[in-house]
Amino acid sequence: MRDVYVQGLENVLASLPRPDRFLFVSSTSVYGQTDGGWVTEDSPTEPDQESGRVVLEAERLLRSRIPAAIVLRFAGIYGPARLLKKEAIVNGLPIAGDCEKWLNLIHVEDGVEAILAAEAHANPGTTFNIADGSPVSRREFYAYWAEILDAPPTRFDHQGDPRAPHRKISSQTAQVALGWRPRHPTYREGLKNVS
């Protein structure tokens, strides 16, 4: 992961002429909160998991080279050809982790629209969370997904990492500053046409 996020970014920055505008798609994995509360762009970035540490390292590299870059921290992306745990659900396999923890999502089409809105309207050096703003428990999400797929009821293997993230991502700042609104405001609208 470090080869892609950090070294890959390093290679891009070394190869390109200094850009007038640079947008970077990051991840909400940079937040380490486990208390189930709301997280904004001002919340501490202290990830416990390696993936979050790598993404945060990439953000810091970018900020050191291009302070005016715009950073978009995406929640879990889903949509056509990006269907969370579809095979496991269809086959009745248990989903690893705590079913009561929050999932934060963004439909791929809404993510693209957020990027375009940021390109057109974001101030230099800003950071935005890109999520639908409607967190859902893993239990509720996967139960609905199983229903849509006409699959057996979802089972969970609760042996997940107790330090796994548990937070609700606010996208209010992006919605106000960029004039952007997700067309799929919850997973229910987003999953209807992706199976």
What structural keywords apply?
globular; alpha/beta; Rossmann fold; two-stranded parallel ribbon; 3-stranded parallel sheet; 195 residues; 7 helices
Overview of the structural elements:
With 195 residues, this protein is α/β, with parallel strands linked by helices. The protein has one domain (2-191): NAD(P)-binding Rossmann-like Domain (Rossmann fold). Helix content is 37%, strand content 16%. It has 7 helices and 11 strands. It has helices at residues 2-15, 50-65, 86-90, 108-121, 138-148, 172-178, 187-191; strands at residues 23-27, 38-39, 70-74, 76-78, 95-96, 102-103, 105-107, 127-130, 136-137, 156-157, 168-169. The strands form 5 sheets. Strands 1-3-8 form a 3-stranded parallel sheet, with helices on both faces. Strands 2-11 form a two-stranded parallel ribbon. A two-stranded parallel sheet has the order 4-7. α1 (2-15) packs parallel to α2 (50-65). The longest helix has 16 residues, at 50-65. The chain starts with a helix and ends with a helix. The model has no long low-confidence stretch (mean pLDDT 92).
